[in-house]
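Title: Comparing notes on inverse folding

I've been comparing how different people in this forum approach sequence design from structure. To keep things fair, I'm posting one structure and asking everyone to reply with a full sequence. Here's the target:
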C-alpha cells in the first residue's frame, strides 16, 4: 500500500470512527437502550481506533532523541 493510499484509508477510518461515536451517543441519548447494539458499536469503534493507530505509526516515523 502506498503512502497516499494509506492516508486515504486513514481518513476513511477516522470518518467512520466519528460516525460510530455519533451513533453510540444517539442510541444512548434516545433511551432506546439496546445495550447489545451499543456494545457492538463500541467494539467496532475500538477496532477502528487500533487500525488508525497502526496506520499513523507507519506513516509517522519514530523520532530518535
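Reply #1:
Here's my take.
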Amino acid at each position: 500500500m502506498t503512502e497516499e493510499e494509506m492516508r486515504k484509508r486513514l481518513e476513511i477510518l477516522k470518518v467512520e470512527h466519528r460516525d460510530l461515536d455519533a451513533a453510540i451517543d444517539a442510541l444512548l441519548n434516545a433511551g432506546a437502550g439496546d445495550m447489545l447494539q451499543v456494545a457492538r458499536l463500541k467494539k467496532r469503534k475500538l477496532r477502528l481506533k487500533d487500525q488508525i493507530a497502526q496506520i499513523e505509526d507507519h506513516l509517522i516515523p519514530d523520532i530518535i532523541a
